[in-house]
Amino acid sequence: MKALPRIGVLVSGRGSNLAALISACACGDLPAQIALVISSKPDVPALAIAATTGIPTRVVAPKSYASRQAEGAAIVAALQEAGVELVVLAGYARLFDPGVIAAYRWRIINIHPSLLPAFAGSMAPGPQAAALAAGVKFAGCTTHFVTEATDAGPIIDQAVVPVRDDDTVASLADRILAAEHRLLPASVAAVLAGAVTVIDGRRTQRRVTQGSGADARD
Ligand code: GAR
Predict the structure, then answer these.
(1) Which atom of ligand 1 lies closest to the CA of 177?
(2) Last residue of some domain: 47, 75, 104?
(3) Which listed residue (58, 107, 112, 182) is catalytic?
(4) Given the CA of residue 14, which atom of ligand 1 is nearest to it?
(5) Model confidence over 23-73: pLDDT tens digits?
(6) How many domains are there within the chain?
(7) What's the predicted TM-score (pTM) here?
């Protein structure tokens, strides 16, 4: 039997998207093996989630490195040592050194809690709060390939949720998060299936394949 593709997941906090990826792998919706979880912070819930399912973990904390380049080199070394083919940023609160992006060109997927390019450039709950403050009627989340420009790489997929008149940042963030938990595993599965092609380095095209998760927005 062919070995499952190995993915590496980078986290910094709560880990609910990591949990969604683990569940999708367990039930077969995401035919992959999470080979390594790297956290930029020690003692976060995401590390405990990984540990309880037996996934190897590493902490690569910025303050342990003299430069962003050295931090990036440690991340690439850990990913390569674990045989990681595809990297997923699931609530990862650091910007990468360009060396990481070059080592995994078009093989790093991020999820962001807004309909990019709107409300780019900050961590949750910043984008959700900004959407609420702007009075938009629809919000959502975006999966995209990571490039050197923050939150601006080719969009893989998006999910839309309504904004209600009585929403708080927390209620809107919860609604978006539920959509994230469907969108991220589906996008990773589609990329692993070879169904997502980057055009001109700016946008993507999707070849719909059975089981690629292309209908995650439903
Ligand atoms: C998620 O909402 C994710 O989209 C966001 O952080 C949260 C992590 O939650 N990411 C960003 O804001 C990236 N700029 P989780 O740790 O429970 O998955």
Answers:
(1) 2
(2) 104
(3) 112
(4) 16
(5) 999 999 999 999 999 999 999 999 999 999 999 999 999 999 999 999 999
(6) 2
(7) 0.94
